[in-house]
Structures are given as structure tokens and as C-alpha cells.
Amino acid sequence: MEKLLDMAKKAADQAEVYSADNISNSVSFQDAKLYNIETNFLSGVSLRIIKDGRLGFAYTRNLIDRQELLNNALRSLEGGVEAPYELPATTGIKKIDTYDPTSKTITSSELVEEAKRICGVVESKTTGEIMAVAFADRDSLRILNSKGTDVNRQSSIAGTYGSIIFPGSGSGIGRIHQSKRFDRMPDVLINEMSSLFGKGRKTVEPKGGRMKVLFMPDSMITLLWRITSGLSGRSIYENISPIADKMGQRIFSPKLTITDDPLNDNYPLARAFDDEGVFCKQLTLIDQGVLKSFYYDLKYAKKLGVASTGHGYRSGPWGGDPITTKPGPFPAHLFIKSGSATLAKLISMMDRGIIVEGALGAHSGNIPNGDFSVGVSPGLYVENGEIVGQVKDAMVAGNIYETLTNVVELGDTLYPSFGGAWVPPLLCDGVSVTTKN
Q: What are the residue ranges spanned by the domains of the chain?
């Protein structure tokens, strides 16, 4: 990598070498039977150069011919992509705990046994099509640039996923458990999943209208996608964020506090630096409903005359291969502050409403503007604080800048969710629900 950087420094004004490795082991069960065992190893090197204010980019899976890689990056300068920013000079990064050495010794047999155990526990509690996954991943990353930055990290993430599918629907109730080391899915998650599935076996056809809606973690993509869009430096620059001029104003309920905290190593995939080598820090985006910050990578920070907040990542909400992807702004460690209510308490607070376990068509609606219109799949209908049954062919619609001003309460437990976020169940009032009736 050092030799490649030296070559690139002679050919360009600025240069960055990015090297990453990933080892992934996973097993999956379908209908409570072993379906697949998979091991993947992915590695590569990418080169980013800046010359005369233009960006060059190239990558390879095997660094055999450095000159060819550099030539490819130089040729890509002809695309005329602007790069008005300076690469960072990063030294003395904060030491955080991102890697558990036991992750290296996890075997496929152990993953199979845990996924099998989850299926067995669920089978003892209810009947349905049971899915289970167990996985263990290890990553390593190193970034060098022409400004003297030389940073690296190791990380591990392992976890389990279980789901129970409603007959004939293709949708079900699922829960995921993640940590830095591989361990058993907590019983509380299995029990929660089984209980909700059991209460939703009966199909009901309630009337639509405005009512309470409980967004569960698997459906929070509906809200998070639009929240992150509004807070992005890219959206500010492109003049598509409806909250660009709302700094210091209350835009959501006082019950809602949202931070991005990559340094919190109580959770997996913590980071001390982003994919551009910029220092990471805790950033409060929304404080008790008040807009406090936007987030930026190097490119959009320069365009807007501010400093990068350390949010330049090579994979966005949908993941992707960081070797082949150029950095862009994204909050990869989003946290919504939990409330004080248990899930049972949240349900008891619903006189009439829908529990949205999953959302279909999260892309529907004007995302930058905050509009959403999603199918509920699955959804559970609640009356007088009790789950009555599963509701089919229902839709939930609105705008987050209205919906999130009507937050009734948040759950007391954080769950992993869309784009690396950790969120509690979120109960809102006055949400528009359309049903067959």
C-alpha cells in the first residue's frame, strides 16, 4: 500500500489508498430445516486521487499491478468529477473496542446449533413457517493518504435472526440480535416474536381512518430513510431538504432525541474514523425535537463552507461493497433515544390502532420532503389496548414532519434497524391508515 501511495503522490496532487478485508460465515434455516451454509472472503484495494480539482478513482481485488491501477485512476479523471476538498491529516485516533477475538474461532457447527435451537424454541411455542439465521463477520480496514494519514481498525459483528411467517402471506414477525461476539438470541426476543405471532393468527378487517400507529424496528425504515435524507449535507446542497432553514427550531416531538454516535463501542461496528479518514465524534442531530445539526462528508462540507462531521462512508443504507464505492454522506451509527415504556405498555396505550411490524414500498412517496405511503406487512390491529388480530391490505401514510410531532411514547428497548441504526418502538397518534373497509 505504501508503494502504491508513493506512486500516486507523484502523479496527482492528493492521493488515498483504501484497503479492506471481510470474512463472513453464515447459516440459514427455512421452515425450521437447514437450508444453507456459506463462507465468504472479500478483499480489495481502491485508489482515490485528486488532480487539478478533479476526482480519479479505481479499484482492484488483487494488487498485482500497481501501475495499472494508478493508470485506471488517472484515466477516470477525464470524467470531470469535481473534487474541491482536501484529504484529512489524521493522527492520534481514539482507541475504542471494536473487535472480539472469539469471533475468529466461531465454527459453522456452532452457528448451525444456535439457529437450530431458535427454531426448536419457537416450535415449542407456536406453529408457523420458521426462519432462522446465524452469522459471524470480521472486518479489517486501513486508510493511507498523502497528508500523512495512516489509520486502521478491526471489527467483529455476530448475531442471529428469527422469523415466523404467517401462512399464505410471505410476511411474518421477526427479531434480530447483534453484538461484537457470538452469543445466543435472548429468550425475551424469541418470546416477544412468538407472542405477537400467536396474537396475529386471526385475520380481522377493521375500518380505516386516523389512529395510533406503533412503528416496530423492522418498519422504521419508513421514518429513518426520510429523517436521514432531511439531515444530509447532500440534501442541503441540492436544496431539497425541507428543514434546511430550521436550525434551532423544534421540528419533532420533544420526546424525540436522535444522535449519531460511532464511538459507542457498547454496540458492534463502532468507528473512530470514517471511510475518508476523518475523526468520528458523537453528533446530536435532534435534541428533544429541536434541530441541532446536519451531517457532512468532505465533499459536501467543502461545497457548503463547513467542516466534515466524519460521515463520509463507502456504503449507505443498503450496504454494498466499500471497495467499489466512493464515499458519500451517511449517518451509519444512528440512535433514537429510548423511552420508558415496555412493549406491553405501548400496546395498552392504543385505544385503536395498528402495530406495523414490516413495511412494503418504503421508497414510495417524496422521500426528501418526508412523505411516506407504505403497505403494512404484517400489521396487527389493536383495540382497547389488546391485539385483536392481523390486518391485511392496509396502508399507512403521512409526512414525518407531521407524524413525528405526534409521538405518544417510545419503548424502553433499542433494536437494530435500517442502515445500522438502533431504535426503540415508536408510538404515534393521528396517523392515516387505509384498510379494505
A: 2-196, 202-437
